Amino acid sequence: MDSNEALHVASLFSVKGKIALVTGGSRGIGLMIARGFLESGAKVYISSRKKEVCDAVAGELAKVGECISVPADVSTLAGCRSLAGEIAQRETRLDVLVNNAGAAWGAPLAEYSEAGWDKVIDTNVKSVFFLTRELMPLLEKAAKPEDPARVINVGSIDGIKAPFLETYAYPASKAAVHHMTRDLAVKLAGRNITVNAIAPGPFESQMTKWMLENHKDNIEASCPLRRIGNPGDMAGVALYLASRAGAYVNGVVIPVDGGICIT
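and the corresponding structure tokens:
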């Protein structure tokens, strides 16, 4: 590979100069994606419900690149509108929206509460639709035929296969996210906005802490690659979808699970 080819490949996967918003960006999957974007030259806004945590994480990430905390509760329409308004006050465009904010709830079938169900569905499904809608003006200003604006939704392999834990609302919510991704991909393509989803398998996060503490050996044994995911695995897929390399990818759900879904 000569220097010109190397430069072309580097630019193909670059997000330098892009502006991104990552919800749930203060920990877990969202933090992995936010850090990957920052290390690759993007300006990143992170959002989460807890202001103190969001501010502290943004402060740490600011050592890597330009990272700004915008706390919000995206499980409500008011929260989505507030977050979109904050971004609009600061930016004239938004190149990448990562809908990652999520919640889980586990309980036996007979004890599964309405409050738990509503929390999961509102955070995991409602937020994706309404935040994307509220940010449409900024996404459209970033959109170009050869380099569309990007919406990247974070689903789960639990939305593809039935999980062994009793988390009934969670897999239902992630399956909904996957199909909403396809629906929005068709509807928004004419505006030069692509919509794709990442379906993570097991990664270290607050949400998976109990599962990995109690079942890590079994999970790794069930994975063809015999390990859980690491931050680079997640950042790499997100960078691909957000960069010029992924400009013609639309409406897909990409499992990032070491092959668990196909076993």
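(Above: one complete record from the training split.) The longest helix spans residues 114-134.
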